[in-house]
Design goal:
Number of helices: 11
Strand content: 25-35%
CATH class of the largest domain: Alpha Beta
CATH topology of the largest domain: Aminopeptidase
Radius of gyration: 20 Å
CATH superfamily of the largest domain: Gcn5-related N-acetyltransferase (GNAT)
Shape: globular
Number of domains: 2
Length: 352
């Protein structure tokens, strides 16, 4: 068995290159995402596992100074090519978290629920009372073979007509209706300049649905860090000269992710969001992406869930679900138990 060592990563290009060659390459584990969290005052931790063959594991986390408990949050990581790197990586994460006075580590692994690594990670952690990120992802393959479940790297792309035929008829009709009624959708040529359109709509959407949002500082940092490499795409849907829907899509590796969306109630009967999504899907298809990720939906058959409303919208475009391992915690101090009690109550209150 090759010897595994874990060290602090220092080379952004090598990190992203290793990430983008994986079958699963979530942008939340990219080098730029660490810069985003650093911009908003949360220290990034980047660890890489190496063997004689090179990098066999990556793990980015950031220190969250939350009132309920300071902790190290790991969004969609660690990502491991060699299962034997799991214990050394967790040991290095513990050391980093303890050094920074964290009460626990919270892992949101990008590991399919049926993967053999799940049981091993569960042995070394305990289930979190809350999720950190979406654990039921709705995604649309843009190739005839699904690169999320096969290692074949040379399939053929699908066509626009095939994607349209895979939608529910209501989605196709609403896309056509939006265009007929004069809605136009464009990808901003300067996302930093045009971000205030999204922020205004997002604030309206937050008030309407009562969710806890990302801060404006987070959105600004994310767009500023990713947009220069065309990895953050800001879409604007206009009707009668007014921006009535907007979204931030992330493009990383062979995947486009619908990460943030917002719209106004003023023109709620105008189906701008359907045309916006179709525009983003077409753009991803023509870029040669393998996957269009709609992000989180509720589990099938679960009606009382905060994501139940968006499930109907997202699944209308066709696709399939990927269920990930549930969020896992690694307790480090006794304070974790207080945090767990608070979050268990919040889980019940929010309906998860």
């Amino acid at each position: 068995m090759p010897r595994i060592t874990v060290q602090t990563a220092t080379d952004p290009a090598a990190w992203d290159a290793a990430l983008q060659t994986r079958r699963f390459s979530p942008f939340l584990q990219s080098w730029s995402m660490g810069q985003v969290y650093q911009d908003i005052g949360q220290e990034p931790i980047r660890l890489e596992a190496r063997s004689d063959t090179g990098i066999v594991g990556l793990c980015f986390g950031h220190v969250v100074p939350a009132k309920r408990g300071r902790h190290l949050s790991v969004p969609y990581g660690p990502l491991l090519d060699d299962p034997s790197a799991l214990e050394p990586m967790l040991s290095a994460l513990r050391d980093a978290a303890v050094e920074r006075r964290c009460a626990f580590i919270r892992l949101s692994p990008f590991i399919p629920a049926q993967d053999s690594l799940v049981s091993e990670l569960q042995r070394l952690s305990r289930p979190s009372p809350l999720h950190l990120l979406a654990e039921h992802l709705w995604y649309l393959p843009l190739w005839h073979q699904d690169l999320w479940t096969t290692a074949d790297a040379s399939p053929a792309p699908v066509t626009e007509d095939l994607l349209l035929s895979g939608m529910r008829s209501t989605a196709r009709n609403l896309i056509r209706r939006a265009a007929k009624e004069g809605v136009t959708v464009e990808a901003s040529d300067d996302p930093v300049r045009d971000l205030p359109h999204f922020l205004a709509l997002h604030e309206e959407t937050r008030k309407r649905h009562g969710f806890t949002p990302y801060t404006n500082a987070f959105f600004e940092a994310q767009v500023r860090r990713f947009a220069p490499a065309k990895q953050a795409i800001l879409y604007l849907a206009r009707y009668q000269g007014e921006v009535i829907a907007s979204s931030i899509h992330m493009h990383f590796g062979r995947e486009t992710s619908y990460h943030h969306g917002a719209s106004t109630q003023k023109y709620r009967n105008i189906p701008a969001s359907y045309l916006l999504q179709w525009t983003a899907i077409r753009d991803a298809l023509h870029r040669g992406d393998a996957v269009y990720n709609f992000w989180g939906v509720s589990p099938e058959g679960v009606e009382k869930h905060p994501f139940a409303g968006v499930r109907t919208f997202k699944t209308a475009f066709g696709g399939t679900i990927l269920e990930l391992m549930h969020c896992a915690d690694v307790p480090l101090t006794a304070h974790y138990h207080l945090t767990r009690a608070i979050e268990t109550f919040r889980k019940w209150k929010r309906g998860f």
